[in-house]
## 1
Amino acid sequence: MSVACSQCGEMFEESDIVTIKGLPVCATCKPFFLKKIQEGDTSVAGFVYKGFWARLIADWFDGFILGIIFQAINLFITVPTAKSTSDPFHFLSVFSVSFSLFFSINIAFYVFFNGRYGATPGKMLIKAKIVNTDGTPISYTKALGRFFAEILSAFTFGIGYIMAAFDSEKRALHDRICETRVIKK
Ligand SMILES: [Zn+2]
């Protein structure tokens, strides 16, 4: 399959084309294109990356939705059980069921929304979407992988998230691991 270079318009074999900022660029145009990007040339179309603060708002929004679900599980399952039993082992087993249920809902939430739309409700709110480095939509499998990679970002005391603030392509740790980018829709 041949691809048109976004800069000179010539057709090239896919293997002779590199993707930069989601745009196909041929080997001849590559150095000029990179120079334009370095110089901050705004005429260079391509990805507009979503930054740390917007993404933090998106994560808060998703956390709010999931928090409501978590509280509902506690209200309707965990707390009534705690009141009905004096056996701590029974309570612990119910608590672990509640927690597993919540964890499963979390996975389903991120895999469904990111796999189908490239964005959770929070990311939709900030008009962002997750894409592969070449700009194509991510698969359900990648959405699942990214869910677990994001746990790593959380377990590093949030440093994995903060990395996005200091990266030219606004990559969080989980974007680096999964080779994804969060861009303006
Ligand atoms: Zn070219």
## 2
Amino acid sequence: MKTCQRCGYPIRGEAVEIDAFSSSGARPQMWRHPTDAGCNKATREAGPGATYTSPLQRHLGI
Ligand SMILES: [Zn+2]
């Protein structure tokens, strides 16, 4: 499963690949959610321990 480099949660659905360059020339594949809302959604879905998001924030997608 792809994991978001930004929020650290698994990505369900669309993922954006991050261009990552290392000094060795290797290019490890890294992924992130397409949007901040995607990160917030994944955080919410992670469970009760996740950061609380108010209904208004949910509505605004932030
Ligand atoms: Zn994310």
